[in-house]
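Researcher: Batch entry, complex prediction.
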Amino acid sequence: MAESLALPRDTSNPVVSALTVIAVQLAGALFLRQFLLIDDWRLVIGLLLLFGAALVLMERVPSLEARVEAAFARHSRLALLLGIAIVLAFPFVLEGNTYALHLCVISMLYAVLALALNFQLGSANIPNFATGASYGIGAYASALLALNFGVSFWLALPVAAVVATIFGFLLGIPSMRTRDSYLALVTIAFGVVIHQLLNNLEFTGGPNGLVGIPAPELFGHSFASPLVIFGQELPSQANFYYLSALLVLISIVFARRLHDSRVGLAWNALRTDELAARCQGINVTWYKVLAFAVDAFLAGFAGTIYAFYVGFISPDNFTFLVSVTIMTMVIAGGMDNILGVIVGAFLLTLLPEKLRAFSDYRILFFGVTVIVFLMIRPQGLFPQRLRRYGH
Amino acid sequence: MSELFLQQLLNWITLGSIYALIAVGFSLLFGVLNIIHFSHGDVSLLAPFLALSVISAIGSALGDAGSLGTFLLALLVAIAITGVIGVLLDLVVIQRFRQAPAMMALVATVALGIVLRELIRHLFPNGSNPHAFPRLVEGDVTIAGFTIPLFSVMVIVVSVLAVCALFFMLNNTRLGLHIKAVSQDRDAARLMAINPGRIFRATFFVASAIGAIGGLFFSSYAGMARFDFSIDVGLIGFSAAVVGGLGSMPGAIIGSLLIAGLDTLVQATVPNGASYRLVFVFLLVIGVLVFRPSGLMGRSLVEKV
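Model: Structure tokens for the complex:
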């Protein structure tokens, strides 16, 4: 890692490096499109092998990875604009496949959840098995507001996030004194309590959950109706696609700003050595609780969008297993690495869906994949980097 | 003392003993390995399915599936195989995470638990459905005018014996002292010519076998074996070990009795208690950890600088 302290110098031709950026981004988008659209399990396995081969290549030839990275650093504005363009255009190339679009929405919501958890697990190394619970609190809070008081989606969104944040603070309080495995258990316990309450309380609809959450409306356009852009009709899922893409974008900006701020530095200091951080005058307790609150805040947003998107929520959507999956996304993707976490979220959301051919065996397959993955690449897909300063 | 009160008391200690058999394994493994083996509950609850398989195998081979001898043999075989499975899991998977960050091992063993549950579901005939599991002993005994089910007596006696045997083993045998040495300081133990790998495997065998007894008792207590029992039981066993203080055997037992006590109390007194029992149990867990951050009997965390 020492060699990457300074930004690698890009000495090659600017045109070549610009083309590299374009090629890598287009290849990524094409890969995702193909992965979403194919049905045959043999092709799915083939694409996974291709992905694995790309990873092995990056691992074997570090100079290649460094070149790509340098190209992205040099043309960051081009990369950003092209990235946005690809995300905007993506629904048009899915051939109106609603299922593929649906998977995109769910993946992006999980990407937000994984980014939320990344503040804790990646930046500060605080385990949290309750992200699923915060997600559920956001979903239930907004759904109850909409169903009982007719509150619109746009108002329910911030309110639900605030409610989830309050719960995040509540969870943070018992977490101030505990650590490691004990802290992990506190969050597991919190998650189980929330799940059991949702499952048993009268007003949350018990195990049947809440049904008939109305679709949001914007300027008279209902999100349940197809979206027409430039005369081309996209399925109704496209509304939520753009909404969740916006949320992912906000989360990324949020994550980057926090990472570069004193808060991010304080979290990293906590991760490295809590005692040393305390000696440097960092208010350890406050930053720990803050990490819980930030996690819950973003999870609350994701929960609200999920509730209004699917229109039906039940306690089973927010179990301990959901929290474990989010943990796995962060760890498998690469802790404290925004790109890695997002890739991890997409991979782990799409994998079980694409393995439907194995129908009953897919949970087994999923478990085995996670274990094998952690064994082979314990540092995650894209390992965390040292902070970089100075251009 | 009313009949009902006695019944609840007995229920409490029976359940507490079963949880303790599983919690002790969590604590023992953590003490030695310093990682959480989250799938320990799933390993323990493999035992009832193994016992059922052995019974049906003996039944089809010899034609006497009903006799007491067959049944006892099946239980012993199940306990031994579960112990071996524990060792195999260490060799194949858990071993790799010895040097990894603690959270990595935790997530990996959570996934391992999922795999074990799914394997039962697919490999055992009709694995998704509950299977009847017999009471290990039927009948009642009368002590001082109170009728007590023989099953509870047996569970309590066997659990006490098993835990005593574990304590004896840890404190008085060569293997036990080696286990304690490795848990105190792995490198110093190595310098004393103790092979940590061998100790890890021995610990996995002992913990899994004791957990298997707990798993068999639990299925017998519930009257059936289900592949998803281990989610709740494993979580409760883990909680009991953590509440008691990871690495402390007496702590694991106290934690189990505490959780089983609240569990029984809630089910007996709170209206609709059966559905709210986990809420109370886990609020207790949070409550205990707020006031005792390293468990009731845990070693207090003193940081070395």
